[in-house]
C-alpha cells in the first residue's frame, strides 16, 4: 500500500460510527501536513473505553461507504496483525513498511488525554504527531501533560508541511474550520445501532 519515502498519515480509532468530521480532519491533514495518503486504522476496540464498539466489519463497511477520496485508505491492519495498543501497531507498521514516513494524526481531544495511552511517550518519540483542532478541546490539548512534556518538540502551525520529515519527537497543532460532530453524539441520538 505504500513505498519507501512516501509520507503517510495514520488516523486510528474506533470509527463507531465514521462521520463527516473524520473526513474533514483527514482532508485538512493531507493538505496541511503535505501527506501522500492517510490511512484510517479502524481498531478492533479501544482499551480506554469500557463499552466495546460495533462489530469491526460493520464499522469498516461504513468507513468505506463514506470515503470517496483516492488518497484515503480504510484498513483493518490492527485486526490482521493482532495488535491492541497504538505502540504495538506502530512497531508492526514500521516492520511491514520500512522507509515509509509515517505521521500519527489525532484530534485535539486525543492530545488532551494522550498521557493515558499505553507507552504514549514512546509513541511521541517514534514518529511525528499531527494534532488537528476539535471543538472545545484547544486549550485542554495545549495544556495537556503530553504537550507540556514535549513542548520543545512542537512545530508552529505555519511549519506544518515540515512535520512528516521532522525527526521525532516532533508534533504540530493546526487550527482548521471546525465540524461539530462526534461518534459519541451520533450514538446517543440513536443514529447508529
From TrEMBL:
Entries under InterPro entries matching the protein: Cyt_trans-like, NadD/NMNAT, Rossmann-like_a/b/a_fold
BP GO terms, sorted: NAD+ biosynthetic process
GO molecular function term, any single one: ATP binding
Keyword Transferase: yes
Pathway: Cofactor biosynthesis; NAD(+) biosynthesis; deamido-NAD(+) from nicotinate D-ribonucleotide: step 1/1
Chain ranges of the Cytidyltransferase-like domain: 10-188
Pfam hit, one: CTP_transf_like
Reaction catalysed by this enzyme: nicotinate beta-D-ribonucleotide + ATP + H(+) = deamido-NAD(+) + diphosphate
ATP-binding among keywords: yes
Keyword vocabulary terms for this entry: ATP-binding, NAD, Nucleotide-binding, Nucleotidyltransferase, Pyridine nucleotide biosynthesis, Transferase
The enzyme's E.C. designation: 2.7.7.18
Organism domain of life: Bacteria
Family indicated by similarity: Belongs to the NadD family.
NCBIfam families reported for this sequence: nicotinate (nicotinamide) nucleotide adenylyltransferase (TIGR00482), PRK00071.2-2 (NF000843), PRK00071.2-4 (NF000845)
Function (record text): Catalyzes the reversible adenylation of nicotinate mononucleotide (NaMN) to nicotinic acid adenine dinucleotide (NaAD).
Protein name: Probable nicotinate-nucleotide adenylyltransferase
Organism: Pseudoruegeria aquimaris
Gene symbol of the encoding locus: nadD
